[in-house]
Amino acid sequence: MKYVLMFVDSPQFAADLAAMDEPERNRAYARVQQWFADHHDKVTHHAYLMPPDTATTLRLDRGEPLVSDGPFVEGKEVVSGYAEIEVANLDEALRVASSWPACPVVEIRPIAG
Amino acid sequence: MSQPTYAELARVVRDHAGRLAASLVHLVGDFSAAEDLVQDAIEAALTHWPVEGIPDRPDAWMYTVARRRGLDQIRREQRHRRKLALVAWPAEPPPEDRLRLIFTCCHPALPRAAQVALTLRVVCGLTTEQIARAFLVPEGTVGQRITRAKRKISDAAIPYRIPSADELGSRLSEVLAVIYLLYNEGYLSTVGDQVQSRDLADDAEFLAALLHQLMPTEPEVAGLLALIRLHRARTSARFDRDNEIVQLQHQDRSLWDHRAIAAAGRLIAQAAARRRPGPYQLQAAIVACHAEAASWEETDWTQITVLYDLLLRLAPSPVTRLHRAIALRYVSGSSVALADIDVLAGELDGYHLFHATRAELFRDLGDATQARTADERALALATNPAERSLLRHRLTWG
């Protein structure tokens, strides 16, 4: 069963990260690296996304295609990256996700088909 | 065979439906398909048994119906063919199967309302209609909740398993929360005209007892079972002939089931011996203090206050603090208790018992005007008819 883990950042998390000094931030990144190393047998694909101000949204349901700036979801919490994992079931996906050392919210969605 | 009463019927269905569901899910390996078969068997039982009587082996009877229906499905549906073809009657499913069933129904990835509906339906064997009636929601809503939940179980691959030791704590508390919610709904219904909905309290006790039988070493499970049994042991004294609430201090204690109270006390002691205290054990111990007191005057309020302090440490909540203040009134006096709950005004302003408690404390202190204002506020917020009646009575005569 394949799932996508969507890593969601909050303003608080971004502020905390910004407030860190260099070595502290490097340790935070190292924890993320470690997490990927620990789960390398399950993670089939992953990517870190550029910040939401780099997003372009295209609406196709308004007659003319409508291009606008920013993410589709105008929330304070934004998806900052994702990983595709392959595990047996939701409990195993939960176990993998619960050790995620970075941003505060992870949405877990099964991949259809 | 004599015609069974509804209560007997409900009990037999409940005892066997969960067992049938457990073995079928295990055998079929598909939650949804198995659950449909069980529902058919339950509905057939509810149609035939009131007329024909309860068969000698209700489990075999229900299995026969499920199997017949399963065979029909094999003919009709390619999808289930392979799985259903394997189904054979197990003498008795291993107990873990029913545990798996409960943990699957109460999986935290399902919304609470769905956990409740699914548990009642799959483990207790209630029909969609019965669940809808118990919660006063449209049958279609319950049906939808169940359908969505079953789809999520299969689409998101919620496993049919008992959580491992490291996950068990939080997963078990999810299960206990569902049972406790069912019990509270049955104990004092918060909706509609029914004062008590006894069926749900029955189901909650059944589930707690089943869970205790399946997990005898879990002290919080024992605590919840004791808590439910202690409350139920006092049921016959809680309402008078006109269905009005009789408050604890005015209850006829000879109407309490003292054997059940003693048995619950032993259960609490056994759980406490495992030295893993938890909120349900502490709540049960508090209720036991009341149940074991020979009279209202002999209530051990000091002990009750101590237990509330422990409970507040494990599970801080403004409602618990409010209850502690009620005990504190008898230990330290009404003005101390009043000062203690005044700080909760912000959080509990919308809770009728907060205002009802303040009213009582003001009455103790001889402030009739403030007592009346607080009672009026409580009445405006209360929804249960018996509680409303009590408050109205107090406003008229108090």
Automatic annotation (TrEMBL), chain A:
Domain YCII-related residue range list: 1-107
Domain of life: Bacteria
Pfam families: YCII
Family: Belongs to the YciI family.
Protein name, per record: YCII-related domain-containing protein
TrEMBL record, chain B:
Keyword annotations from UniProtKB, A to Z: Sigma factor, Transcription, Transcription regulation
Gene Ontology terms: biological process: DNA-templated transcription initiation
Domain annotation RNA polymerase sigma-70 region: ranges: 13-79
Signal sequence, start to end: none
Superkingdom assignment: Bacteria
Record GO terms (molecular function): DNA binding; sigma factor activity
PANTHER family noted in UniProt: BLL6612 PROTEIN (PTHR47756:SF2), BLL6612 PROTEIN-RELATED (PTHR47756)
Protein's recorded name: RNA polymerase ECF family sigma subunit
Organism: Micromonospora violae
Lineage, uppermost ranks: Bacteria, Bacillati, Actinomycetota, Actinomycetes, Micromonosporales
